[in-house]
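Action item from last week, closing it out:
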Amino acid sequence: MRILVRRFTPDTRLLLGAYGLLLLIAVLVLPLRIEELLQILASRQHSFAGFINWIPKAPGSAPLSYFTQAPFVFALGVSRLGARLPSLLFGLGSCYLFLHLAKSIPLRRPYLALALFLLLPTQYRAATEGLPFEPALFLLLLATLVFLRLIRTPTVKLSIWYAIALTLCLYTERFSYLPSIGYLLFLFAFVNRAHERRVIWFSLPATAAPVLLFLPYYLWARPLVSATWLSAPAAPSTPSSIYLQALVDFAADIPVGYILSILLILGLFAGVWGLFRVPRLEYPTRVPPAALPRSIAIFCLFGGAVSTICIVLVLDVWNGYPFRATQVLWAMPGVVVSTSVALERLKPVPKRALWALLILLCFIADVQYLATTREDLHRETLLVRPQLTGDSCVVFVSERLSKSLFLLFDPSLQGRECGNFFHHRVVLASHAYVTPYQQENAESFFRGLNFVEVQRIRSGGGQIVVMETTGQPAGPTPR
């Protein structure tokens, strides 16, 4: 499409270069998280059939992100750059598409809106992790641009392109489709106009068709979801209420996260508040593309953000899942646009102060994200081999997927896995996702076999426990 082949301006090239450097720093500095390693494992299967069969094991999986990442992992191996380069490239693409979105509305300060969008902790994190979120965000922004063109000039061709973009969203990350529901529903607010009624008739099948096209994959994948799939345990400081979780995680899970989340949520609603205080424009029978009211585009983007947040909260409450900031990444384009519109109405001094505060809070959150200690399975794996001295073997606590994770970095450990427990030394290797119950269960099992702890090494969010047999029977010595 033409929006993808326009020549970059010097300002855009400079911005893309600076942002790419910020992303590259995080990509190379931060260790791979277990969630990323679980996706890499698909590309390390020994056959195409194994690759295909691995994808549905992850709850809520979608295949396109795996196919996108696989060539990079094959070329660069199990490395930070190999896993994350697709997200970095799609992050630069998202930067370019959001700038076009801001200009097409248009916003008065598109580059300030872009800076806020790019520095949002959820967006920065998505662009620096080897997960499907950033590729899906790129596709969502592409679908949003097509939707805005569709409501200017409804045609069959644009309707088909919109359906294709939304289908790609679903096949990359399921939740990235959610804003399209809000786009359509909030467009009904203008159903009294002939032009918008025509737009609805074109956008309705384009919004529904992707769901039908995704249904075959969903029905195939649902029974294949692994019951032993690993998931990150909730942090001890996580609020018990999912609504408080959403408030603190909406922007950033740090002390300034509350402030940033509140400001963005207020900006989301303040941006559309003024839309209903201006007289509505009546359309003639045929409208040129330039006559599209700015308020319709803003209101539909607001609807996309609201539908995403509400549906995510309902699903999390229904399933009993904790709230994750990445679940509402898809709301962020609408949040930033609406917040930018709200700031446009302020006087110069408070407007500049709020812009500076929002960008500063995002920058602080990003710096803290880079500095936060996190799981590092690579570093932990390197500590296992030196403990396997003499008559010893290794046990991968919680088994199954845990073994595959450690073998990513040291395949030779497979030959040292415990086939029986008659060894003098046993090394228990636990990663960051092993629960306290699983850890205690493993240690108590070996204590019952007369093993005693001789060393405990905590590293990379996990721990390595070295236990040796005493050679004495368990329990008290009989008289």
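Closing note: The longest strand covers residues 451-459.
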